[in-house]
Amino acid sequence: MRAVELIQKKRDGGRLSREELEFLILGYVRGEIPDYQMAAWAMAVYFQGMEAEEITDLTLLMAESGDTLDLSPIRGRKVDKHSTGGVADTTTLVLAPLVASVGVPVAKMSGRGLGHTGGTVDKLESIPGFRTDLTPQEFIDQVNEVGVSVVGQTGELAPADKLLYALRDVTATVESIPLIASSIMSKKIAAGADGFVLDVKVGKGAFMKEEAQAVQLAKAMVQIGTLAGRSTVALVTDMNQPLGRRIGNALEVKEAILTLHGQGPENLTELCLQLGTEMLLLAGAAASPREGRAKLEHSLRSGLALEKFKEWVQAQGGNPQVAEDVGLLPQARFQADLKAPQSGYIQGIDPLALGMAALHLGAGRETKDSTIDLAVGLELWVSEGDYVQEGAVLARIHANDEGLLAQGLQEAARAFHLGKDRPAVRPLVYRKITAQDV
Ligand code: URA
């Protein structure tokens, strides 16, 4: 086999077999195929696309290119949730204990934040004492004992994807649905779950700006999961405004705790219930959406989910008292309020602008090696559609540096759009994509 012939085949719209993809992908990981040939293949894929089986072969090859997690020692069906990345999206911190509290095991590997989107591992590390570096055995034992564990990535999952993503980043080949879908799913499959609930974000603060693109991505991922033998569903959800009301690591932990107390923002709570219902259905813990939702609502109302959160935090070395006293979380030294410059309806809150403001305050990473400040960020006091009087507080900025505080106020101000007309209400969930839809 010769790489140039495979590139030519893809360039001309052909379909590569598993053996041909294996030659390219594993050859690339071993350093036998040079960057320029992989880049040419990625560009050919960008223009010609890939067939469903071909994308699945690529995904599985990437998933098997490094370490894979064996979750079979954990009793029950393990269903993972993945979000393509949003702002003020702390669903994992709510969902993990919520779903575990109704008896569905949650064994999750999460990432760190990069750019304007946050990462669950960083958020968890703002809980005093919390360890995200459990050994694989500790991780598995904890899920069997407590029902839930969330850890950072151990070992090297899908190294082929890591190499290919870095190459795509500098060769204008990131924006290809087959390559994005296989990239995400390869890491998920390597992490070992039996099923996946995917939250594909669409809008100003998301990777996918248009609904049609997001639906295409959701369909591609559901198809890969299904062909790979994992039950998979996707919800396409709104990211034209921040999901919750807090952005920043410790602030998002606070938001998750408030939500588990039944005092969370409406959209965040609703999305957790909808994603959680899908997880219960895939895990076989509910026979209908109505039954799944009722179980989760009961768990939230009765405090069972909050109790599970405390057990989980304690099991990972964290201080469970944070669940009753959010003042134990890291606090920034300086706060300032952003006030409405005029009366009117909040017509829009740009999630990307707020995500960037939080990043510049120090809550996120500009590059993979940046250090972050767990305490800083923003709290929103209003949502889209609210009417505010001039001078009302729109947001509170938390910073550890007075210069950054002033900058944060200016940046956050640019995210709010006020006007005299009440804006139209957008759905929170646009579409559900199941295996039948692809
Ligand atoms: N996120 C990923 O993990 N991979 C992509 O290709 C794009 C976004």
Brief digest:
Helices cover 44% and strands 15% of the residues. The protein is of the alpha/beta class and 438 residues long.
What is the topological layout?
Blueprint: H1 3-11, H2 18-29, H3 35-48, H4 52-63, E1 79-83, H5 91-100, E2 106-110, H6 120-124, H7 136-146, E3 148-152, H8 159-169, H9 177-190, E4 195-202, H10 211-227, E5 231-238, E6 246-247, H11 249-260, H12 266-283, H13 289-302, H14 304-315, E7 334-339, E8 344-349, H15 351-361, E9 377-380, E10 387-388, E11 393-399, H16 402-413, E12 416-419, E13 429-433
Parallel strand pairs: 1-4, 2-3, 4-5
Antiparallel strand pairs: 5-13, 6-9, 7-11, 8-10, 8-12, 9-11
Helix pairs in contact: 1-3, 2-4, 4-9, 4-10, 5-11, 5-12, 5-14, 9-10, 12-13, 15-16
Bound molecules: uracil.
Commentary on this structure:
This protein has 438 residues and is of the alpha/beta class. It is 44% helix and 15% strand. A 4-stranded mixed sheet has the order 1-4-5-13, with helices on both faces. The chain is globular and about 70 Å long. The model has no long low-confidence stretch (mean pLDDT 96). It binds uracil. Uracil binds next to helix 9.
